[in-house]
Amino acid sequence: MTELVPRREGRKRNAATTSERIRRTALELFSTQGYEATGIRELADRVGMTTASLYHYVGTKAELLTDIMRDAQARLLAAAQGALAGIDDPAARIVRLVHIHVLAHAIFQLEARTVDTELRVLDPSALQEILDARDEYEQLWREAIVRGCDDGVFTVPDASTARLAIMTMSTGVAHWYKPNRGASPAELAVNFSDLALALLRATDAAGRTVDTAALALGDPAELIPLLGIAPPASTADAAR
Amino acid sequence: MTELVPRREGRKRNAATTSERIRRTALELFSTQGYEATGIRELADRVGMTTASLYHYVGTKAELLTDIMRDAQARLLAAAQGALAGIDDPAARIVRLVHIHVLAHAIFQLEARTVDTELRVLDPSALQEILDARDEYEQLWREAIVRGCDDGVFTVPDASTARLAIMTMSTGVAHWYKPNRGASPAELAVNFSDLALALLRATDAAGRTVDTAALALGDPAELIPLLGIAPPASTADAAR
DNA sequence: CCTACCGATCGGTAGG
DNA sequence: CCTACCGATCGGTAGG
């Protein structure tokens, strides 16, 4: 509560902080109870306001959900594009995609669960927006797998099913991963890229089995900055 | 509408049929809109009743959901136990588990989606019941994978992560599989068991890569009867 | 004219 | 299976 620095733009700063607190709290409620089961009164109570005050900062409950989902999807797409920059080899591209996907789903678990679970409550135009970003993201996976199959470095019964399998198993991280116990997100990312390469029966030009280490792409933890700032702790509110 | 046979137990038959129609309609609404977003008035309208009449057949909305989820989970467990009967080899056991899992999630898609999505709305005792059945089911997978790793026929970074990956990717079938287009459930099952064996880097005693065909377990379609009767078509109501 | 809210209540609908 | 309702709570907004 102590003010360490004078705040010249105090009003604006507080407005932003309050909006962020509302959004963070909404995310926590939506991702644990579900959007429909979360009342605006419950949200307002948790933030310590009346609903009338809440509506000073927020358009509607639906907008809150839409913003959360859109931002999460946009962040994933942008991070994936960043993680692929300068990488050409299909096996390396898949590894990078798995790494950024697992990192995003381990670090932004609540956002990922919400995107996964609440698509059906979106209105048609908001849904279209999210699905467009998702399609663009999936296209990155599709291309890498098809090219790997064409080059003969991947061998799968069906490229489309293999892609769905890898994406689905990696998305699962958001549902069962427990931070602060067991593997770090980066370790999990390597574990999963090894599983993905195995599933794809990835081999090098000489026909030898390929794993993540063989591709020498570095620690996936280096990709974390691509995801933007870390999710704020629930009640973090540092002066400045 | 024509009666082909006299019905001596007309009342009972109709009562059963109405309950089934309500349950089937509830399943369709829950699995597409979500439990919270489905109103009892909406359910009653779809079945062609008032809400009051609906409550003649049904305890509560929550009970309807609980029954659907419990039955689906019980069916999956029983089918898996049946599919494993007389199978000892870990690779063969995993293949059988993947087959029955994919079949169940392709054929009983709506039930599977509901179990997947609506766990959080269950009350503690109903939740415990479902989780107990799920734990017993997962234990079958755990044992097969651990034994395969011990025997040296599977090679994975981490047995627990590999199990979650395979189960999650197979469960995904319930969310994207379209019946009546592309592969049959049995074909999909073989596709997935090949992916699972690849992911586990399964080999035989001689160190050669193993696929589903090599295990000669027969067509997974033969396992379908283990799942019990097929889901009724939405409006099926045969005389007798 | 602004911001950051308040107490009270709106019209409708929820499950039962 | 219906009409007629209940206690409570829903998302959202009024004036100040």
In short:
Chains A, B: This is TetR family transcriptional regulator. Chain A is mostly helical and 240 residues long.
| Strand residues, percent of chain A | under 5%
Main β-sheet of chain A: number of strands, strand sense, barrel status? Answer: none
Shape of chain A: elongated
What's the alpha carbon Rg of chain A, rounded to whole Å?
Answer: 20 Å
Oligomer: homodimer
Q: Tell me the number of structural domains of chain A.
A: 2
Q: What is the CATH architecture descriptor of the largest domain in chain A?
A: Orthogonal Bundle
Keywords (chains A, B): DNA-binding
GO molecular function (chains A, B): DNA-binding transcription factor activity; transcription cis-regulatory region binding
Protein name (chains A, B): TetR family transcriptional regulator
List strands and helices in order, with pairings.
2 copies of one chain form a homodimer.
Chain A: H1 10-33, H2 40-47, H3 51-57, H4 61-84, H5 90-107, H6 109-117, H7 124-151, H8 159-171, H9 173-176, H10 185-199, H11 212-215
Chain A binds a DNA duplex (16 and 16 nucleotides) through helix 1 and helix 3.
Protein name (chains A, B): TetR family transcriptional regulator
Domain HTH tetR-type (chains A, B): 16-76
Organism (chains A, B): Jiangella anatolica
Structural account:
Two copies of one chain form a homodimer. Chain A is mainly α. Helices cover 64% and strands 0% of the residues of chain A. Chain A folds into two domains: 9-59, Arc Repressor Mutant, subunit A (Orthogonal Bundle); 60-227, Tetracycline Repressor, domain 2. The first copy, chain A, is built from eleven helices and no strands. In chain A, helix 5 (90-107) crosses helix 10. The radius of gyration of chain A is 20 Å and the shape is elongated. Chain A binds chain B through residues 32-34, 36-37, 117, 120-121, 156-158, 161-162, 164-166, 168-169, 171-172, 175-176, 183, 188, 190-192, 194-195, 198-201, and chain B through 32-34, 36-37, 117, 120-121, 156-158, 161-162, 164-166, 168-169, 171-172, 175-176, 183, 188, 190-192, 194-195, 198-201. Chain A binds a DNA duplex (16 and 16 nucleotides) through helix 1 and helix 3.
